TrEMBL record, chain A:
This is ER membrane protein complex subunit 4. InterPro entries: TMEM85/Emc4 (IPR009445). The chain crosses the membrane at residues 80-105, 125-145. GO terms for cellular component: EMC complex.
TrEMBL record, chain B:
It is a single-pass type I membrane protein. It is found in: Endoplasmic reticulum membrane. Residues 23-411 form the EMC1 first beta-propeller domain. This is ER membrane protein complex subunit 1. The keyword Cytoplasm does not apply. Component of the ER membrane protein complex (EMC).
Length: 180, 981
């Protein structure tokens, strides 16, 4: 998108416009060719700008979909890294897992910002947004799953009882072999 | 990406190297100390060569033979004989061998005098028990050899002193003669052997010492009969007592004739009622009789009459006679006078003359003089000087010369009975500025040195200085509490009735106290130490104190004595002679408002007595009345009984603090098949962190943690002797785990073909025990872990999250928890003297077993090696959990000896005390020697190591800050230049 803008805007220094947009027939000596209607050209002009807008909207929505699908690549990458990291707890696996958790969360926080440039009355961003959110949630789930495989989630009974102190005893007894 | 991964993996791998507990050479002595003792001296032989180092060879009641430096009292060499190898006599032969007779006269050994190497050893056989006598005559020489005469086990043996060969043996037991004395006749190779047959027949044998040929045999009967010791007065006269103990009998066997002469003690003007005994002595022409509590010196006059020379109180001690220059004799008399001790050296036979008279100031904490040995030396003016080696009541050994104590040794520490610990005082506020500055300077200097060492810039002198700083760190020997709880007082009770407080930092004696002897009790014995008052929350102003429980006499019916000792000052606060006895002492888990712990004393009538005797204590006790039980293990009868408190004592005197008990349950072992040899319970102050054990599959097993658990081991009566005395078929070992409240047997297991001795340790939910397997001919160690099956259902995560469980509710033994056990057995190479387990403040740190091996060392063995869940091929998950693949024997890793290269001779016990720092435990091993160290079973994960260089850290931070500043300035300048361009 940026590229397109650059080509259209600042790429030229000068321009000659061959189209004569004057609508008054009096300024012209030559009659219009047969089959040519000035009014239709006017009409055509408006359709042209509409077409242009349509194209832009199309383009925007297409781009929005692309952006929405971007986390998928990320997801694959993350999955590969997680597989590489293994299931034991150490610096590397923890780092990967936490980045896998952090990336989707930060992406979800900035959903609005990501789709800001594609905001258009004609473009329906709901679909891409939903896809984007779903994919990120998928990434988050992957991270959580990784956290679980690392055994860092308190999902077992052992996680809840291991800190319980031993129960107190009601009775007390002492004694043994008599003192010698 | 890949590179990052590899780097990270490498980093990870380097961080998880295998933990090792061994020390580096320069770490020895940093947190451990070792002290060597010998025990109370029984015999001493001086060896003062004209050249070379002067030394004295001693044997002690701890069966130690040692050669001590006469100048400083240091040990040149030392041998600790076995516990049954009691030394009967020592002497020096050929001027180069130390001869010792031990094991009731059956073992004769020669040790090289300069270095203590054993030269030879002879076993003397005999049929009957008799008084062991060792005689090393100086003039019985054949070429270079000289004879040693030993009378033991009813026989007289002549042994060559060069190689220990038995030259000849004469059996007197065959003639049913009990040898009393072996006498060497002056300047001849003839010896006299005198003894009794029965109680009235006197025998005198004249024997040629060279070949054992009997020259003459005389016998005579004395109607009065003989009793007790004999005192040799001259080479052909001796004195003994008749059976009534009122007549002194002088026996002379001159000229092949035996003559008796009776002298009634009353004729000597003495009251002979009471206890009369002849004390063994070797004074010429004189002997000592002890009557009640005074001593008589009686001389044999030239007309064979007896006359009393001197009368002293029983506290006076006399040395043996010492021959110096041309047959002159001398002996020393030591008398007490107030805080002073008077030493007089008298020439033989002349009581009224004094060679030396000295008076020395004596610390009254040393008690009375028990023994004295004298030795002479030549002064520079060629006159004779005398030095005296004195053994005191507190077992200390002193060398006195020229009226001064040259050195002393606190040898009571060789006979520790019980140990406990006490906190040190809290550091007071307000330290002077100068001191702080000085210490700051010192601190910086020390750290700069250390930094040099770290950066390998230190010169050899610096290295030595660093080591000296590390060893002599004033931090560790301070008299105040430290943040980590490393500094403590070790309170030890010794057989000498002396209590010592040792500083855990460097092992020095902070104070010592000889327990007060009351008038009522003549021979008190001490039993145990208990922590009486340990103020920590409130009552901080009070000093902590310990309770010493003793007994007046040795029988279990003897009345008890209680003493309370302040552990800061070492003063005896109070002492009581009780009317009742004490066979059990139970510290209760309750304290009163001044933090005094409630104690129950059980007497031999099974009544319990509550201490302290205050109304507050009784109200606390009455609240818990129905929950207090006690059990008794009667090993001789094979009965274990459980008791509960019933009611107040019924008696003429109303005693609010005395309670009757009733028997609740009893377990009777069949006498013909089982004999109790060990009973072990959990340490009452042990802390357990969690009740759950998490296995590799995230499964939970609930430990059965009960303090009321007793481990009992019984063996077949036939196999209760020493190893090898029974066949494997008739030997078995049965172990029980018994609940001491209900008497329920929770677990029982039989090891066929196994026998004792059993050493066991019970901790948390497991018991480890050590025994001998007769079939495998090896020692074994077994572990049994106990799990609570009735809690196993608590596995619902949701309920646990919401707290809907009863896992922390108080439990009663009457709820009959269902238990399961897991056991495993391994071979173990060593035989064991003591077993203990490390204990930490919160019980989080993993445990190590501390095994006192037969080599008198302490081995630390990870509890992970004794885990019933070990299998030959553990799964990956189990490996991750730390389960070691199963092997048939337990590994002994040389680096895991806690005592590294040192030995704790005569090891008897190991005490572990938690430090405040969770990772660390303090270990004190005692026997004849003492050893103390600090252990971190899972390494010090909660603190920086001792040799962490704070200076380096500081330097790094400073350098970083400087670098940041410099780069900031540089970047500012560069930016400015950019802007100007």
């Amino acid at each position: 998108m940026e590229k397109g803008k650059g080509v259209m805007g600042s790429g030229r220094r000068w321009a000659v416009d061959f189209t004569d947009n004057s609508t008054t027939p009096s300024t012209r000596d030559i009659a219009d060719p047969p089959g040519f209607s000035r009014a239709s050209q006017d009409q055509d002009d408006s359709t042209l700008s509409r077409q242009k807008k349509d194209a832009e909207a199309n383009w925007k929505s297409q781009k929005a979909w692309e952006v929405a699908q971007a986390p998928f690549k990320n997801l694959m990458m993350m999955g590969f890294m997680m597989w590489m990291a293994g299931s034991t707890v150490h610096l590397f696996s923890i780092g990967i897992t936490f980045s896998a958790l952090w990336q989707p969360i930060s992406a979800l926080q900035g959903v609005g910002k990501v789709f800001e440039p594609y905001k258009d009355s004609k473009v329906d961003l709901l679909g891409p947004k939903l896809l984007f959110i779903a994919l990120n949630l998928g990434g988050l789930a992957l991270g959580v799953w990784k956290l679980n495989t690392l055994g860092l989630l308190p999902t077992h009974a052992s996680d809840w009882v291991s800190s319980l102190p031993p129960a107190l005893e009601v009775e007390y007894s002492g004694g043994g072999i008599p003192l010698q | 990406m890949a590179i990052r991964f590899i780097i990270l993996t490498l980093l990870f791998l380097s961080s998880c190297t295998i933990p090792s507990l061994s020390l580096y050479e320069d770490q020895v002595g940093l947190m451990d100390w070792h002290q060597q003792y010998i025990g109370k001296v029984k015999h001493a032989v001086f060896h003062t060569q004209k050249t070379g180092r002067k030394r004295v060879v001693v044997s002690t009641e701890e069966n130690v033979i040692a050669s001590l430096d006469l100048r400083h009292g240091e040990i040149f060499w030392r041998h600790v004989l076995g516990i049954n190898d009691v030394v009967d006599g020592i002497d020096i032969a050929l001027g180069k061998y130390v001869i010792t007779l031990s094991s009731d006269g059956s073992t004769l050994r020669a040790w090289n005098l300069p270095d203590g190497q054993m030269v030879w050893e002879s076993f003397l056989r005999g049929s009957k028990h008799s008084k062991p006598l060792l005689l090393v005559p100086t003039n019985l020489k054949v070429d270079k050899d000289s004879l040693i005469l030993v009378s033991s086990k009813g026989c007289l043996h002549a042994v060559s002193s060069i190689d220990g060969e038995i030259l000849w043996t004469r059996d007197f037991a065959a003639e049913s003669v009990e040898v009393q004395q072996v006498i060497q006749l002056d300047e001849s190779d003839q010896i006299y052997v005198v003894g009794y047959a029965g109680s009235s027949q006197f025998h005198a044998y004249q024997i040629n010492a060279m070949n054992g040929e009997l020259l003459n045999h005389e016998t005579a009967a004395f109607s009065g009969g003989f009793v007790g010791d004999v005192a040799l007065v001259s080479s052909d006269t001796l004195v003994t007592l008749d059976t009534t103990r009122s007549i002194l009998v002088t026996v002379s066997f001159k000229n092949r004739k035996i003559a008796f002469q009776e002298t009634h003690l009353s004729n000597l003007g003495e009251d002979s009622s009471g206890m009369v005994e002849i004390l063994p002595s070797s004074l010429t022409g004189m002997f000592t009789v002890k009557i009640n509590n005074y001593k008589l010196f009686i001389r044999l006059t030239s007309e064979d009459k007896l006359e009393v020379v001197h009368k002293v109180d029983h506290e006076t001690v006399v040395s043996d006679a010492l021959v110096f220059s041309e047959g002159k004799e001398a002996f020393a008399v030591v008398e007490h006078g107030g805080s002073k001790v008077d030493i007089t050296v008298k020439p033989g036979q002349d009581w009224n003359n004094n060679l030396v008279q000295e008076s020395i100031e004596m610390d009254h904490q040393r008690g009375l003089v028990h023994k004295v040995f004298i030795n002479n030396y030549l002064r520079t003016d060629r006159s004779h000087g005398f030095r005296a080696l004195i053994v005191m009541e507190d077992h200390s050994l002193l060398l006195v010369q020229q009226g001064k104590i040259v050195w002393n040794r606190e040898d009571a520490l060789a006979s520790i009975i019980d140990v406990t610990t006490s906190e040190l005082p809290v550091e007071k506020e307000g330290v002077s500025v100068a001191k702080v500055e000085h210490s700051l300077f010192e601190w910086l200097k020390g750290h700069m040195l250390k930094l040099k060492g770290t950066l390998m810039l230190a010169s050899p002198e610096d290295v030595a200085a660093i080591q000296a700083i590390r060893l002599k760190s004033s931090e560790k020997s301070k008299m105040t509490r430290d943040h980590n709880g490393f500094r403590k007082l070790l309170i030890v009770l010794t057989k000498a009735r002396k209590i010592f407080a040792l500083h855990s930092g460097d092992g020095r004696v902070v104070w010592s106290l000889l327990l007060h002897k009351s008038e009522a009790c003549d021979s008190p014995t001490e039993l145990n130490l208990y922590q009486w008052q340990t103020p920590h929350h409130h009552a901080m102003d009070e000093n902590p104190s310990v309770l010493v429980v003793g007994r007046c006499g040795v029988s279990s019916k003897a009345p008890a004595i209680l003493s309370f000792v302040d552990t800061y000052t070492g003063k005896e606060l109070n002492s009581f002679d009780l009317v009742h006895s004490a066979v059990q002492v139970m510290p209760l888990p309750f304290t009163d408002s001044t933090e005094q712990r409630l104690h129950l004393l059980v007497d031999d009538d099974r009544r319990i007595h509550l201490y302290p005797k205050t109304s507050e204590a009784i109200s606390i006790f009455q609240q818990e009345f129905s929950n207090i039980y006690w059990y008794s293990v009667e090993a001789d009868n094979g009965i274990i009984k459980g008791h509960a408190v019933k009611s107040k004592c019924a008696g003429e005197v109303l005693d609010d603090f005395c309670f009757e008990t009733r028997v609740l349950w009893s377990i009777i072992f069949p006498m013909e098949s089982e004999k109790i040899i060990a009973a072990v319970s959990r340490k009452q102050n042990e802390v357990v962190h969690t009740q759950a054990k998490v296995t590799s599959e995230q499964d939970v097993m609930y430990k059965y943690i009960s303090k009321n658990l007793l481990f009992v081991a019984t063996v077949a009566p036939k196999a209760s002797g020493h190893i090898g005395s029974a066949d494997p078929d008739e030997a078995w070992l049965v172990v029980y785990l018994i609940d001491t409240i209900t008497g329920r047997i929770l677990h029982r297991m039989t090891h066929h073909g196994a026998q004792g001795p059993v050493h066991a340790v019970l901790s948390e939910n497991w018991v480890v025990y050590h025994y001998f397997n007769l079939r495998a001919h090896r020692y074994e160690m077994s572990v049994t872990e106990i799990y609570d099956q009735s809690r196993a259902e608590n596995k619902d995560v949701l309920k646990l999250v919401l707290g809907k469980h009863n896992l922390t509710a108080p439990v009663s033994s009457y709820s009959r928890p269902e238990i399961t056990t897991k056991s495993q057995t391994y071979f173990f190479t060593h035989s064991v003297k003591a077993v203990a387990v490390t204990s930490t403040a919160k019980g989080i740190t993993s445990k190590q077993l501390l095994i006192g091996t037969i080599g008198d060392q302490v081995l630390a063995l990870d509890k992970r090696f004794l885990d019933p869940r070990r299998s030959i091929n553990p799964t990956q998950a189990e490996k991750e959990e730390g389960i070691i693949p199963l092997a048939d024997s337990l590994p002994i890793i040389p680096q895991s000896y806690v005592t590294h290269s040192l030995k704790v001779e005569g090891l008897r016990g190991i005490l572990t005390v938690p430090a405040k720092l969770e990772s660390t435990t303090l270990v004190f091993a005692y026997g004849v020697d003492l050893f103390y160290t600090r252990l971190a079973p899972s390494r010090t994960y909660d603190s920086l190591t001792e040799d962490f260089s704070y200076a380096l850290l500081l330097l790094t931070i400073v350098a970083l800050v400087a670098a940041i500043f410099v780069t900031w300035v540089l970047s500012e300048k560069k930016e400015l230049r950019e802007k100007w361009r």
